[in-house]
Write a structure and sequence with these properties.
With 389 residues, this protein is α+β, with helices and mostly antiparallel strands. It has eleven helices and twelve strands. The chain is 46% helix and 20% strand.
Length: 389
């Protein structure tokens, strides 16, 4: 058992772990425990979340407890989250509790089973939730490398209920809980990977379609402005090279660990260069975009420029785009204005490109609003500055 700092006085008064060794434990029912473990092992082949629920119910049943649950220490936070709850406290499924001011936190600090009586006398958040806990037994949850990731706990409505035998059984079940949690985490990572792969597949399909639409638009736009075959070839080749540069920025999402940050205006110019007869001149303060945000911003302006080529200002020779932005310590506000194109109106439906644009902006903690003016679209983007680093 790990050493730990002295408990605060209020917590020490409800900390009664030493009583476990002094209470009479009935003879172990090893057959029942063995059958319970076999039943739990059988559930391991089913959905991981169901395994956790069954494990909590098993702990509650074997220990004749009023309620039971699991508290998981969330990554990069100082709080536990409850899940898999069974019994009278099931209504608190998904609730959070503080790491450094809770029985679960004490359990992890001790590194072994602990017993508390009336913890609501020491923790006001339990009292404020109108919860009365005559006794609660907690054991730490560990994964294969020994790291403690949470607790398995059971509550009795009868003082003096839990004994050393319960602590032994709970510790054994906690070993299964650690394995089941790894299964749940593995399932979650797999689902996230599959969702990302599906998104990438849709994005790739969308980009292939867009490439042909953009290529057709560039050929048409360049042909209208060119007076000779050589001029057409030179201008069109230059625009396709610029388009390749822009798409190289987008492809950084596929694992280029050497990607370097660029300034906000450089990124916008590189993305919009293929669509303008002249290099656009964005206006705003100097902002450095970190390598993680390059791809998202490239997608945002690439999609907006694509829509302008298909439907907006850049579908006509006279069309222009102006981009201005301002920034403070927390937000970056970008104003995109289109002029000189056809009359536009709000689209009747939302295609994948618009959904991709919205999802990408949301991933940066941002929002976008549209103002469909007769002279052209005006859009305002608000982005979290911290997300651009």
């Amino acid at each position: 058992m790990a050493s730990h700092s002295p408990l605060p006085e209020a917590v020490a008064r409800v900390f009664i772990t030493d009583e476990l060794a002094n209470r009479v434990s009935p003879p172990p029912d090893y057959l029942r425990e063995k059958l319970a473990v076999h039943e739990l092992a059988r559930h391991m082949s089913g959905p991981p979340d169901a395994v956790m629920t069954h494990l909590v119910e098993l702990a509650r049943d074997i220990c004749a407890a009023q309620s039971a649950g699991i508290s998981i220490l969330e990554e990069d936070t100082d709080q536990f989250r409850w899940f898999g709850l069974s019994g009278t406290l099931a209504v608190f499924e998904g609730a959070t509790t503080p790491r450094n001011f809770s029985p679960c936190g004490v359990c992890l600090d001790v590194g072994g089973p602990i017993l508390m009586a009336r913890p609501e006398l020491a923790y006001d958040w339990i009292r404020d939730a109108d919860i009365t806990v005559p006794e609660v037994l907690l054991v730490p949850l560990k994964i294969e490398n020994g790291a403690q990731i949470g607790t398995l706990w059971i509550v009795s409505e009868t003082p003096g209920h839990f004994h050393q035998g319960h602590a032994r059984i709970m510790t054994e079940l906690a070993a299964f809980a650690g394995l089941a949690l790894r299964m749940v985490q593995g399932e979650q990572r797999l689902q996230a990977a599959l969702a990302k792969q599906e998104m990438l597949t849709h994005e790739m399909s969308h980009r292939v379609k867009n490439f042909f639409a953009i290529a057709e638009g560039l050929v048409r736009m360049t042909a209208r402005a060119a007076s000779t075959k050589d001029e057409l070839e030179t201008n069109l080749s230059g625009r396709f090279r610029a388009l390749s540069v822009a798409n190289a920025l987008v492809r950084r999402s596929f694992g280029d660990d050497q990607a370097q940050g660029v300034t906000f205006d450089e990124l916008i110019q590189r993305i919009l260069l293929p669509y303008h007869n002249e290099t656009p001149v964005p206006h705003g303060p100097t902002l450095v975009v970190g390598e993680r945000a390059i791809n998202d911003l490239a997608l945002i302006f690439h999609e907006m420029a694509t829509n302008a080529v298909k439907y907006g200002a850049l579908s006509q020779d006279s069309g222009k785009i102006s981009i201005d932005w301002s920034a403070d310590d927390h937000l970056v506000r970008v104003v995109w204005n289109e002029t000189g194109g056809p009359a536009v109106g709000e689209p009747a439906s939302t295609g994948f490109g618009m959904r991709l644009l919205q999802a990408t902006i949301t991933s940066l903690g941002g929002t976008i609003s549209y103002d469909w003016q007769p002279e052209g679209l005006s859009a305002t983007l608000t982005l979290q500055r911290a997300a651009l680093r």
